[in-house]
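Issue 218. Parser rejects a valid record. Input:
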Amino acid sequence: TEVCVAFPALAAIEEGFDVFVVTDASGTFNQISRDSAWQRMTAAGAQLMNWFAVACELHRDWRNDVEGLAKICSDHIPDYRNLMTSYAALTGNK
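Output the parser choked on:
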């Protein structure tokens, strides 16, 4: 995170790009290194987000391909799958 993400992010910001860092798509040795890298990138102007926020932002409109993004969410977020299952049971899968 502090090298392979931070260096390109800082360089892109310096070049005038808007930078969004997907925080759960990289790793490092410990929490201090991670938090320091996030603070450095944030101070330079990067916006931190996670994979779920990126997926939903790219998807934008749930009326298009609801099943596709819902499957990704269901496969990777057990709590989301439980919510979908509960909703389907309450509405009769309507």
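Fixed in the parser; the record now loads. DSSP finds five helices and two strands in the chain.
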